[in-house]
Amino acid sequence: MKSFIITILLTLVSMTGHGEIKCHVVGTVADGVKRQTFYVAQQGTADDDDAKWTEIKVKDGRFTLDIEAETTEMYEIIEDHKEGGHFALFLVENDTLHISITPDDEGARLDVVAGGPEQEKWLEMQRMSKSLFGQKAEMIESKLDSLEDNDLLDTPEGRKLVQAHDSLKARIDAWMKAYKADHPMLYGLLYLEVGMLYAYDDINEARPYLDEYHQLYEHLFPKHPAHRRIALKELGLQLQPGQPYFNDYEAATADGEKVSVGTLYRGRVTLIIMWASWCNSCRGHAKLQIPLYEKYHDAGLNVVAIAREWNMNSFRLAMERDKYPWPSLVDYQDRFGVWEKHAKKNGSGKFLLIDRDGTILSTSFDAQELEPIIKKALNIE
Fold it and tell me: Where in the numbering of this chain does the Thioredoxin domain appear (predicted)?
């Protein structure tokens, strides 16, 4: 059978060019899997940028993919990068990696079954965990599913099973943490980074990942760029009310002129609006701030908007349609890393109200909640 082969040239920084890592991915797709197209990208880098996703087409139940990268990184293969669906994470290493795709009640199940040395360390931990806890976990989950189907979870039996499930999960987590402490693995470091990514900007959700990072991984694999990214994430997570905001960073005007953003907000009561033309919720929340701006701008309220964009035409169209009364800076294709600096690598927006001294007053996007804080900061009775 002739495989459908796609070669992608990915690097950590530019996503183009040749790298030191060459990984050959082989996929087998079982009969009964309806989907014949999947997508691959480096984890946490693609978001809604179609250009960063590589489409893989299945032919005769197989696909192959060659990835070149600067260093070993975490990638994901997903059913549909727009609609979501099942996915699998894997490490790009100088080796061959095997992915199995089988039918599932909700689409397709994606499993990494073999890979390079670091991938194999993780797979071995998973196999050992399954041998120790798998049978009991499957039994509890099967009973819970049955009770849920019959609307019996909120019964003495259901509550007892939920407690047993939580207790077993805690045992598995403790066992895995001890195993990773005894068997350092790069996959563990990058998997923690993925967990932090989906903690969004909630410091409490991110705390378990940060604690494990500092306990197990902070001094391991010292040259890997994940340490820099995690440090930025941790710094960004500190952007909470009562904490100082950044003294300065850079973005660009719509015409591409570099701007020192700090010059626009230092010494002023400022609402920082991080948005994007492709983020409908960001735009909706931003438009709700227009009445606040018009009401308090003459009294000193300042707005600094920064858009994360992949397409400048879409940006200009959004500015025209939404009729913002303030200009907007742009971080085009993450040139300045503004979202990463604010711990927002996932791609959603962020609002920060800061006072004249640079202290964060609020991270809310609720205009009603913001108004009294703005009035107090502007010394309006």
Answer: 239-379
SS3 of 259-285: EECHHHHCCCCEEEEEECCCCHHHHHH
3-state secondary structure of 77: strand
SS3 label, residue 80: strand
Work out the average pLDDT over 277-302.
94
- Max CA pair span of the chain: 77
pLDDT value of position 196: 84
Q: Are 328 and 314 in contact (CB under 8 A)?
A: no
**CA–CA dist 290, 177 (Å, integer):** 48
Who's near 371: CB < 8 A, 6+ residues apart? 292
List phi, psi (to 5°) of 125: -65, -40
User: From the centroid of its chain, how far is CA 166?
Assistant: 26
Has this prediction a pTM greater than 0.70? yes
Kindly give, in sequence order, each residue whose CB lies less than 8 Å from that of residue 84, ignoring residues fewer than 6 positions away.
Answer: 78
Give the SS3 label for residue 232.
Answer: helix
Q: To which residue do tokens 């967990």 refer?
A: 195
Q: Which domains does the chain have, with CATH numbers?
A: 5-114 (2.60.40), 121-237 (no CATH), 250-377 (3.40.30.10)
Angle at the Cα of 347 from the Cα atoms of 344 and 353, rounded to 5 degrees: 50
